[in-house]
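note to self: dont lose this again. the chain is below, predicted strucutre after it. 706 aa total, dont forget to put it in the shared folder this time
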Amino acid sequence: MPSRRLFVTTALPYANGALHIGHIMEYIQADIWVRFQRMQGHAVHFVGADDAHGAPIMLAAEKAGQSPEAFIGAIQAGRRRYLDGFHLSFDHWHSTHSPENTALSQDIYRKLASAGLIYRKSIEQLFDPVKRMFLADRYIKGECPNCGAKDQYGDACENCSSVYPAAALKNPRSTLSGATPVVKSSEHHFFKLSNPECVAFLREWLQLPGRLQPQVVNKAWEWLAGEGDNALGDWDISRDPPYFGIRIPDLAEEKYLYVWLDAPIGYLASLKSYFDAGKAKANGEARSFEAFLSAEDIEQVHFIGKDIIYFHTLFWPAMLRFAGAPYRVPDHVYVHGFIGVSGEKMSKSRGTGIDPLRYLELGMNPEWLRYYIAAKLNANVEDIDFNPDDFVARVNSDLVGKYVNIASRCAGFLNRHFDGALAPAAQTAQLGFEDVARLGAAEIEVEVREAYEAREFGKALRLVMQYADRINQFIDEHKPWELAKLDEQRARLHSVCSVGMEGFYRLTILLKPVLPSVARAVEDFFATPNLRWGDLCTQAGQTVRARRIKSYTPLMLRVDATQLETLFAPPSEAPTGRSPQTHAEHQQHGSPKETKVSEPISIDDFAKLDLRVAKIQDAETVEGADKLLKLTLDLGGETRTVFAGIKSAYPPEALKGRLTVMVANLAPRKMRFGLSEGMVLAASGEGPGIFLIAPDAGATPGMRVK
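---
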C-alpha cells in the first residue's frame, strides 16, 4: 500500500494564448516532484486545467469572430504539444468551462451563502452605453486628473505616476467602443473575508509549519494584519452581464461569478472529471471523488507563482474551509519566482524571450531545459535566470561530459569483450575494487532524496554530479583503455567497467525525476523496466537487477550553440507567437498599438527636451503603491530620484546597474510618496508589458541623447 496519497495541481493557465516559459518552468518543477513521489511508491493524482472564463476571453473571442467556446477550445487543443513535448506527466487536463466546474462553483457559493458569508452591496462603476457593459479600469482611457496627460488608463497615469479612481479621469472614453462611459450603479455580491471567524481560521491556517514557505507566510501575515486602508477587505465575487462565466445560482437576475472565484475551483473540477472518466480507478484509487477529497489520508498540494499568493493563501483556503465537506483546505502551497533571461525580464521583441514551442520545433532536447531549470530551482520564492552561455556549458558539462560519458566510456568494453555481461560481485571484491556503493553513493543518495522531497532541486543535482565526478575519477584511475590491451588484465577490465556501469545505473535512478526519457532508454539498455527509488541498494553486487547490458547507443547529444542563437532571434528573423496573459494579468493592461503618429513638432520643440543617459543605482518598491518603483538615478555626478510606474514589468533587483534614458529637465513633481525629479522613458505596445528604453553599450551616465 502506498504510504502517501497526493492530489497535486499547478496554477491554471489563462486560455487566451499559448503556454509561455513561465508556465513550463512551473510545470517542470511540479512534474519533477511528482515523478520523485511516484518513484517512492506513493500514489499521486496530478491534474491541470485551462482557466477559461472572464471578460478578456469574451472580448478576445469577439475580436476573433468566434464564440468564446470555440476560442478556448482551439487554445486547449494546442496544450498537448507542450505537455507531451516537455514530458509533463499530468494524469488529466480539463477546463474551468465545464459542467463539473459549474456544479462545484455553484455548490460552494450556496454553502458560503448559507454560512452567512455572502452579502450584497450596490456599487458605482463606469458603464459603456454602446457595448452595454461595465468597464474594468483597463478598458477606460482619458486625461490624467493631475497632470492632464492624454490617453491614460483608468487606474494610474504613466506620465506622472499618479494613482486615481477611473471616475476621476477627464474626458473618459471606452477603449472598447470609443463611447463616453456613464456612472451606473449595480448590486454586487461580496465574500465576507473580514468576518472574525474567517480571520481566526486564516491565522490558524498560516501557523502550521511546512504548509507555506516562510517568505509566503510573512507576506500573508502582512495582508492579514493590515489596519485602516490596508485592512483585510471583503471580496467582490460577482460580475454583471455580458460576461463569459458561471451564473450565480438561485437568482432571477443575470449575475456571474467573478473568474477568480471559479478558477481555483477548477482544480477540483479537473479532479472530478478525472474520477468520472475512470482514470483515478485505473491509477489505483477505488474511492469516489467525494470520498477521496474528504479523506484524512489525502494531501492537497498546489504549485503556484508568486504573483497569485494573495488568492491562494487567503481567499482559496477560506472558501474551502467555510464551504465544508467534502472540500478540504490545501495541505501545502508551494510558491516559486519568475524566470528571466540574462538578468532581464522576458521580451520576445528584444530577443530575450523563450518560446517553448519554438524550442521544441528547433529540435532542442526538452530534457536539456528540464535539467537546467531544475539546477536553478530551490525551495525559496526566488526568481531564476536563463543564461544561454551557462545553459550550454552546464548541459554539455554535466549531462554529456559527466553523466552520459560514463556509459560511453564503459559500455563498449563490456559489449566487445564480455558480450554485455557485468562482472559478478565476487570477482570485483576478489580483485580489491571498491564497489560503487562504497564510492560515497549511500550517503549521497540519502541527501538527494531529502533534497528532492524539499524541492531543493539545485542541491539534489549538485550532489548527483559530485557522485558522477567520483565515478569518472574511478575510471580515470584504473584506465580501462589500457587494461583492454593486456590479456592478463581481462578480469580487472571486466570489473572496472562493471563498477562504472553500476554507478551509471545509480545515477540514472537519481536523475529519473528530471530526465524521464533518458531514464526510459537506460531501462531498456539494462532490461530493467520501471526503475524505482527502491532499486538503489547499497549491498555489493545487488545494484543492478539485470546482469547484462544491450548494445550501447548515444543517449544524449551536446547543445549546439547555433540553436540558442536561432531560439533568441528577434521576431523579424524568426517567427514567434504572442505571449499570453497569465491569470494574474486579468487586472493589468497592455497599451494598444499606436496606429497614428502624433502631430508634427519642430526641431526647436524637440530641443527643449533634455534627454540624458542615466544609471539605475538603486530600485525599491514603494509602500502603498501598486505600480510604482522608486529609482535612484546617476546622471554622471548628479543623483536624481524618480518614481516610475514599471513595477509590473521589472523586479527591483533586476534594475540595479542598468542604463536607461530619462527626461532630465522635467519639472519636479511632489507626490504623496516623495519628490519625483524627472521621468524615465519606456515603451509599450499591443501586447502586455512595459519596456525601459536602454542605450547601446558604451554610453555612460550623463551623456545627452540627441
